[in-house]
Every structure is written in C-alpha cells, then in structure tokens.
Amino acid sequence: MLERRPERLACPNCDHEEVAQLAVNEQRWHNCRGLAGLSTPLVPAGMNCKVEAHERDDYVGGDRVQTDGEGRPIMNVTTTRDDGQDVVVYAPTASGTGESIGLVG
Ligand SMILES: [Zn+2]
C-alpha cells in the first residue's frame, strides 16, 4: 500500500477542518452544520470548489428519503471543482407491507 502524507481537509460550507492520511480514492465525510447536518464530503483545504445539496423535486410519497436537518428531502450532494464534478446520490428506498409485495396472502 502506498504511503500517503497527511493532508489538511476542509469544508467550503462550514468551519470544519481536519488533518487525515487518506488512502487512494478515500473520501472523508462530516455532518455539515452549513448544510443542515447532511453528511457531506471534505475537500483539500484551499481547493477552489463548492459543495451543494440539491433538494428532491418530485413527489416523495411513501419513499424513504434522506432529509436534511430541516426536513427537506435531499436528492444528492454535488462537489464542483475546476476540473469536474462528483455527485453523491441519496437513493430513496421504497417501502411496503408484506401483503403489497406478495409475501403474505
Ligand atoms: Zn461543513
């Protein structure tokens, strides 16, 4: 395994900072006060980027969705850097009774 030197990480939406020694492609997360408590990725300190939460636009119905601290259904969190984007999707899960999916009957 490659040795990595500690890197200073920060959040563009709050004052959270930490130093971590990450493996290749490892991502650090925190519960962001700036984005209503959502779990969002940290970026290298000083990086020119933005991390944004996008609300789900369509009807939630009976789906179990990720909500932020204010109860808004969140569809994804997007990190936009000068050289590209990373998107973390909070996939909804359907719910139902055993009867409705044919397990009881
Ligand atoms: Zn934050």
Q: How many beta-strand elements?
A: 8
Average of per-residue pLDDT values: 88
Q: Give the CA-CA distance, first to last residue.
A: 53 Å
Q: Fraction of residues in helices? A: under 10%
Structural class: mainly beta
**Quaternary structure classification:** single chain
The largest sheet, given as strand count, sense and whether it forms a barrel, is: 3 strands, antiparallel
Detailed description of the structure:
- This protein is mainly beta and 105 residues long.
- The protein contains no helices and 8 strands.
- The strands form 3 sheets. A 3-stranded antiparallel β-sheet has the order 2-1-5, with no helix packed on it.
- A hairpin with a 6-residue loop joins strand 1 and strand 2 (17-20).
- The N and C termini lie far apart (53 Å).
- The relative contact order is 0.18.
- The mean pLDDT is 88.
Set out the fold topology.
Layout: E1 7-10, E2 17-20, E3 29-31, E4 39-41, E5 43-44, E6 49-55, E7 74-81, E8 84-89
Antiparallel strand pairs: 1-2, 1-5, 3-4, 6-7, 7-8
